[in-house]
## 1
Amino acid sequence: MVPKPPLRQSSAGEIQKGLGKHGKIVDDMSPLYQRTAQSARAGGRKMAGISRYEKAALGLTAAFLLFTGGWFYARQSAAQPYTVTVSQSAPEESPAPAASGSEEERPDSLLEGEVIDINSAPAEDLERLPGIGEKRAQAIVAWREEHGPFRSVDELVQVSGIGEKLLAGLRDYAAAEPVS
């Protein structure tokens, strides 16, 4: 077994091996041994060196944290979209002559709280009921002319094209007033 050469410290603070058995200079110590010796010399205050892969992982982690932190900060401090509020005054009603003097202007749908009498309403008014189009309105008028006035709204199921489901949607908007 060959005795180990004594360790000595150079002026730069590096640990080197001394002369070998035959007076030749022995190579420097292994990097692991050098790091351990440096850490021991520093009294554990200095962290041992890290590999370049560890440096790359730490760098990527730091970059990721900076990026996500900046992204969240930018989203919180971003300007909110503009809100534009527009108001329009009601146009002045001027008495304009009607296109045809006998025809009144009718709304396309029911007014709030309005109930239509199915015994006296023309087909145009019946079309304003939910689920009733032009053909069904004509069918209601034809049934009314053939069989007389409806005694109740429930008799609408006798009209072609009106079933229980449609009738359930009509009950709040239709009434069968007795004809005088």
Note: The chain is about 35% helix and 5% strand.
## 2
Amino acid sequence: MTASAHINPSPDRAQGVLMGSSLNQQGQALYNRGQYSEAEKVFKEALDVKLRALGPQDYSTGIGYNALGETYIRLGRLDEAEENIKKAIPLVSSSAHDSAYYRENLAKVYEMKHDLVKAKEERLQGSPNSIICAEDNCTVFPLPHPLKYCSRCQSIYYCSEKCQRSDWKRHKKFCQSPAN
């Protein structure tokens, strides 16, 4: 699957892009305030607009699936998060950064499901040049080599010890040695 690009969109398509983007921004504002249930509703509406106006293979539709997937992560609805993020990844394959970011989101879902092997496999799909730091607020991309990783579970990657320490509060709930 590849995302489509349109240089001279039809009026309906242009309206769909504007409306879908506006709704996405509204959903993101709710998400940033921690209002995940409200964000879910708005992201679903944005995705519906994008699907109708742009189609299921559009890059912008992929952004919508990922936004909804991230919201489901926050709501603890991991199966729904996995389903949506899996739909998003192939739609943004033209962007190494977005692909890496979405793969990291999917890896976090697997991590939360205590499947560290699958989490590591998902992260390493972008190796060596398209892996993103697991710390949510980090902007380093691609990760410097050699990769820094959790010495205990060996399934999560960081750009620095600072980012690893910052992510530890989240990651420690799921971290276990590979033998477990």
Note: The mean pLDDT is 91.
## 3
Amino acid sequence: MTCFETGLAALLKVELWVKWASIAAPLVTALAIFVAVRQINAAKIENKRAIAHAAYDRYLDLCFENTHFSCGYTTPSDTENDDNLKYRWFVSKMLFAFEQILDVYADDEEWINTIESQLSRHKSHLAHSSTVNGGEWSEQLKSLINKVIDSHESNAIEEVVTEAEAVPA
């Protein structure tokens, strides 16, 4: 036979396979553990993404159900009427959704721009919100809120200056 003549007969010996199996088993186990850890991490990330998308979807449903709140609400915050209380909860739900989104998409410019756009609609309330001023939100969300509030205040100052320049002396 050809295998006996070429030295391949050693592959037919059980002792050789037992030695190789004792070497290969830990390597196969390590590879299996590596793959399993990667799958678990990928599942965690995908789960967070699903939660973030669901939170934004709930926020959009809330906007659809409360269209009078979705573009901001202008009643003074010290007024205790039913709409004002509902609006505060509306904003809290919005901020909670944004916090979940930022937890997953912290560096995604499209999401950040979307969140800033939505926050700017509610900047008057956010500037006086006790939860915002109390630091109850994540650092990244607080940073975006402050950016929106600061741009609102600088725009208001520019408007006053422009109006003062327009008044004839």
Note: The CA atoms of residues 53 and 132 lie 23 Å apart.
## 4
Amino acid sequence: MFTQRCHLNAHRRSIHFGEKHSCDFEGCEKMFTQRSNLNAHRRIIHFGERPYGSDTRCTHLTTHQGPVLQGN
């Protein structure tokens, strides 16, 4: 069951109609059911974007925003 019509439509396009979004970078054969996932893939894999850091004292950057464990 889908709580939003747009989620149902996305499900139909990807599962029932086989709509896929493919990466257009040379040599990359990745395919995604959602364009947003393709865009994230391109930014992270092909452009090396790492927009999320743990804090100003740490130089480690990550691709996903979320909780960060404190290290020693």
Note: The beta strands are 21-22, 31-32, 52-53, 61-62.
